[in-house]
Specification:
Structural class: alpha+beta
Distance between the termini: 18 Å
Helix content: 25-40%
Number of strands: 28
Number of helices: 22
Length: about 725
């Protein structure tokens, strides 16, 4: 068949129309299935698969991002109220607390702490709460568990948990909470809080020894002295002495319920080889269930079809109503039906997808910071005009965490209680300019720390009272300060002492000019770190320069995290960089990082620098179990003074979180204690669809241009072809 020039135009036009028609009605760059466009779906990302989904083991933020939506401890943090306040979750009310003496006799609430031998927490849970559908709870027509006795042949055929077609459910009972606490004690599970709980829960340590050789599910009917189910919906936890902070632990995933059937099911030989484990497929009573766990692509949470009734809060703090945070008061939770977490390891494509509306929220990488954030003349962070035009919301908060430069107090040079070592540490604390660090490496996202306690934690002092006088001076007046000033106050500011003060301390310590009198050369100190990549070099060079101010030569000893941890356990590190996130909003959770009996080398605790001070320990033991009040506040300030003087740490900084959310993201209020915020989130689907269409309109002119070029190139080819045909015929 001959092809005429006119036919070429027609065929090309038809092809172009087909191509353009395929783009009509949806954004051609949309990475999600078209049917999700108008659904209540939240789009998030993850960069690394959570290692643990078992609430007895999980203890990191990327794990809590998932399991806190799936599991439910008896209590939770109120989403809107500040200061942070605990509220019932599966419990009917806050626990009934009883004090007992050594004979088990009840004491009045006004009893002296010294008379209190035990504290009972009586917890009553709601009836009618059910577990999500799960094969571990499936039963056959005879009422027997369908999948508790799988054969080898059946297991060989399994690829994933979803290959088991039947699921079941049952009611949550008090025994499930008791069973989970027993799991915390089981040595095979290796819960990270087991050692701590031995100090508090009565019988915990004895139980751990008794069950050392037992299978997990075999502990179900074995008694633990301090934990008892009183009836179907009520249980009691008995702890040693008085420890008011224990209530905060009951709001953490560690104390979520676990059905014994889950351990029976997952313990079957062969399932672990197929990654069919509790760490891959959790089972809880929360608002969401994990429907897909594909660490190389995506993870998906779906609304739990059996989720019990829970309503959005009807009260908060002043101003919440005006901000629209009570618009959904009393409505049933959750609002989102599906949450899609896509694997994103590179920041640029992640950022671009957020700007296109394909992610609903985003952090801000350093590379994108200037595009998103600008600072006013007074140092206040605001959105750039580009972000404002898109209706993007900025939420900032100083986190309840601290990063610090620690000294190994067992080291003969930087450690110990001598005046020489103390002045050396104080000099280093002045020289290491964390205001500069925040400006260079964190885009100003942080507040220089003045002590152990971050803002938002009881005992944190503002103004002149709250500064570290060994590192800072208080400058009166309203003098201007840079945007990264460590500590501003209406009547003054904290100003880092001059480097000359630090050099004078070096001289008093016997290191005049940074010279070690033993070697007659520059003092050499060692910085142990996990920063080993090329990207870490600028930070390491910065640390070297800070020590060079004092004439000290800093040697960087980089290693992988496992080796670094071993060095810390053995006490072989000299100077190190570490951090801590609050588990609960109480100063005890920070001061215990310097408590002697928590020393890492001697006791395997979280006192990584092995700081030992009898007076500090005495104050800590007196403060830890007190209720908040004037006396406790004074003790906290005394403890702050002690560690500021001794300088076992260079108190680094409290990070400031900057998060961006699209305008269709509703009920947005940062909660630094709660991990289960997802159920409160609502998405305006219509607004999102409208904005996505606006921001991702197909651009057709390149196609039209390409088509025109194609035709122009094709015409000579067709003409040449026709000439050859004619010549052949002739």
């Amino acid at each position: 068949m001959k092809i005429h020039i006119g036919q070429v135009h027609v065929l090309g036009l038809i092809l172009l129309i087909i191509l353009l028609s395929a783009c009509v009605g949806s954004e051609p760059n949309d990475p999600y299935p078209s049917e999700e466009g108008n659904q209540s779906v939240l789009y998030e990302s993850f960069s690394e698969r959570p290692k643990h989904m078992d609430p007895a083991v999980a203890y990191s933020s990327n794990e809590y991002a998932f399991i806190a939506q799936i599991y439910e401890p008896p209590f939770q943090y109120h989403y809107l109220k500040r200061p942070y306040e605990l509220a019932p979750l599966t419990a009917t009310d806050m626990p009934e607390i009883e004090y007992l003496n050594a004979n088990g006799e009840k004491l009045p609430s006004t009893a002296n702490d010294s008379d209190i031998a035990y504290t009972d927490y009586l917890i009553k849970i709601q009836s009618g709460i059910r577990y999500q559908p799960h094969p571990a709870l499936a039963k056959n027509t005879q009422g027997e568990y369908a999948y508790h006795h799988l054969t080898g042949a059946q297991i060989d055929k399994l690829g994933t948990l979803q290959d088991l077609p039947e699921t079941g459910s049952r009611e949550l009972t008090a025994e499930d909470y008791v069973y989970q606490i027993k799991r915390l004690a089981h040595p095979r599970i290796q819960s990270p809080i087991a050692e701590l709980m031995k100090n508090y829960i009565v019988g915990f340590d004895d139980f751990a020894r008794q069950v050392a050789n037992k299978q997990k599910f075999e502990i179900k009917d074995m008694p633990m002295t301090g934990v008892t189910a009183l009836d179907r919906y009520q249980y009691r936890i008995r702890i040693k002495g008085k420890y008011p902070q224990f209530i905060f632990w009951l709001a953490m995933p560690f104390f979520s319920p676990m059905p014994w059937e889950a351990d029976v099911f997952y313990e079957q030989p062969g399932l672990n080889d197929k990654n069919i484990t509790l760490d891959w497929f959790p089972i809880g009573t929360g608002p969401y269930l994990l429907a897909e766990n594909n660490p190389n692509r995506r993870m998906i949470l779906l609304r739990n079809p059996l989720f019990h009734h829970e309503a959005y809060p009807s009260e908060g703090e002043p101003g919440d109503k005006e901000k629209g945070l009570l618009a959904d008061a009393g409505k049933p939770l959750p609002f989102i039906d599906k949450v899609v977490y896509m694997l994103e390891k590179e920041t640029i494509p992640y950022w671009n997808k957020f700007l296109q509306g394909y992610y609903d929220a985003s952090g801000i990488a350093s590379d994108n910071f200037d595009q998103a954030i600008q600072f006013t003349g007074s140092g206040v962070a605001t959105l750039t005009d580009t972000m404002k035009e898109k209706g993007i919301q900025l939420e900032t908060a100083v986190t309840t965490s601290i990063f610090y430069l620690g000294f190994n107090m067992l080291d003969p040079t930087v450690g110990g209680d001598s005046e020489k070592a103390r002045k050396l540490r104080q000099a280093i604390a002045i020289a290491v300019d964390y205001e500069e660090y925040i400006a260079i490496f964190a885009n100003g996202r942080g507040v220089a720390a003045q002590g152990l306690i971050p803002p938002g934690i009881y005992g944190y002092a503002e103004g002149k009272e709250g500064i570290n006088p060994y590192v800072y001076d208080w400058v009166n007046g309203k003098a201007s300060a840079p945007a990264n000033a460590p500590y501003l106050h209406p009547v003054g500011k904290a100003q880092r002492k001059s480097i000359e003060v630090a050099r004078q301390l070096m001289s008093e310590a016997g290191y005049s000019g940074g010279i070690d009198p033993k070697t007659k050369q520059a003092l050499i100190l060692y910085f142990d770190t996990t920063a080993v990549s090329v990207d870490d070099r600028p930070r390491m060079n910065w640390y070297r320069k800070q020590f060079e101010k004092l004439g000290i030569k800093l040697v960087i000893r980089g290693t992988d995290y496992n080796r670094f941890q071993q060095k810390m356990r053995d006490g072989n590190a000299q100077i190190f960089f570490w951090g801590w996130n609050a588990d609960y909003p109480d100063p005890e959770n920070f001061f215990f990082l310097l408590y002697g009996p928590n020393a890492k080398v001697a006791h395997g605790g979280e006192n990584a620098g092995n700081y030992q001070n009898a007076e500090f320990d005495r104050l800590f033991e007196q403060m830890r179990n007190m209720a908040n009040g004037e006396q406790r506040y004074r003790l906290i300030q005394q403890m702050q003074e002690r560690v500021r003087r001794d300088a076992p740490w260079v108190f680094g900084f409290h990070p400031k979180s900057f998060s961006l959310y699209h305008g269709w993201y509703k009920n947005l209020k940062p909660n630094l204690m709660a991990n289960n915020q997802l159920k409160y989130t609502r998405i305006d689907k219509a607004e999102r669809a409208e904005k996505r269409a606006e921001w991702n309109k197909p651009v057709f002119w390149p196609l039209l241009t390409a088509f025109a070029v194609f035709v122009l190139l094709l015409i000579p080819a067709v003409q040449a072809y026709r000439r050859r045909i004619k010549e052949t015929i002739q």
